[in-house]
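Help needed: design a sequence for this.
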């Protein structure tokens, strides 16, 4: 149980984790049945602030550290979602390094070997060796002493707040844009993502039924997690006009008891998670899965990790695919 607890802490808001290409893979073996009600998302509070200066930008990050940013010519991104935002803002040519959570866009994969995972496992030497003028990550980057070590080398490190709601994506985009001095491009990107998300949620709202859904995350059969209310996946489920049936915390261990309480009609997971288990058959053999309605009907939707969990520029695309998979009758209206 200690291993599961520590993994849950590391992945509590796992956005922009791992993944493959920019398309969703769907394994659908039954049509989802109706459930109950939907909920709306609200923007997560943020304490991150930015203050323009004559000689750069002063940024007070999620860790409370004040950083003065004067040079963005060599950026290291420690999160896949932030990498996607940087490239969408048009500063991809200034990115000199990314960590393993970056799987998109393809250009970012040409930067050389990725850095080790930065969430909880950050090491200073590989980052410093890239000679960056700016390092950007989110609030889960650590350990804190390693972040301090990078700062002690004279490298600004900007850590932004985590966002776990659809509305919070705008905050994330605008914060990154302010840090790199691309506010106009950031506003345009945020407007585009808002419009795409709104299109998907408006389409979902026309569905007559609201299936019960549970999201499962795995890194092999010994590391099984169930995401619940307060997680990014819960916001996606609500946005798709479905019901998150998980009753536990944002991230908790996957147990037969938790699955019995949730009893979803549809399971959702990611391609990497499914691959780590050995495929769909292995998924449905997990303890407690076969006893749920979704397990009995072998109802499972599978998506690219970064696309579904990233909460970045492609979230509207991910949400629309999710809506159409949950509500296939809406395809003619999309």
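Sure. Designed sequence:
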């Amino acid at each position: 149980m200690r291993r599961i607890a520590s993994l849950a802490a590391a992945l509590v808001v796992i956005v922009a984790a791992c993944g493959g290409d920019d398309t969703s893979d769907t394994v659908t073996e039954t049509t989802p049945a109706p459930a109950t009600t939907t909920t709306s998302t609200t923007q997560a509070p943020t304490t991150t602030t930015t203050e323009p200066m004559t000689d750069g930008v002063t940024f007070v990050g999620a860790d409370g550290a004040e950083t003065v940013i004067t040079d963005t010519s060599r950026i290291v991104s420690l999160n896949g979602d932030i990498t996607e935002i940087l490239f969408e803002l048009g500063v991809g040519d200034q990115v000199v390094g990314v960590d393993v959570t970056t799987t998109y866009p393809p250009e970012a994969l040409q930067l050389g070997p990725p850095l080790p995972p930065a969430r909880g496992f950050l090491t200073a030497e590989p980052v410093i060796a890239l000679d960056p003028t700016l390092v950007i990550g989110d609030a889960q980057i650590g350990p804190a002493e390693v972040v301090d070590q990078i700062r002690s080398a004279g490298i600004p490190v900007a850590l932004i707040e985590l966002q776990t709601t659809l509305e919070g994506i705008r905050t994330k985009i605008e914060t990154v844009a302010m840090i790199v001095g691309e506010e106009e491009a950031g506003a345009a990107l945020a407007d585009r993502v808002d419009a795409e998300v709104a299109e998907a949620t408006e389409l979902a709202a026309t569905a007559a039924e609201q299936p019960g859904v549970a999201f499962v995350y795995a890194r092999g059969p010994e590391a099984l997690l169930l995401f619940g209310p307060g997680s990014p996946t819960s916001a996606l489920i609500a946005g798709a006009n479905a019901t998150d049936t998980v009753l536990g915390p944002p991230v908790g261990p996957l147990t037969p008891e938790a699955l019995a309480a949730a009893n979803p009609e549809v399971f959702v997971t990611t391609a990497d998670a499914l691959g780590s288990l050995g495929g769909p058959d292995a998924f449905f053999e997990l303890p407690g899965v076969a006893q749920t309605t979704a397990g009995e009907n072998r109802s499972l939707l599978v998506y690219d990790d970064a696309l579904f969990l990233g909460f970045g520029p492609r979230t509207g695309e991910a949400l629309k695919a999710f809506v159409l998979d949950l509500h296939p009758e809406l395809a003619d209206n999309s």
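Residues 198 and 316 are 8 Å apart (CA to CA).
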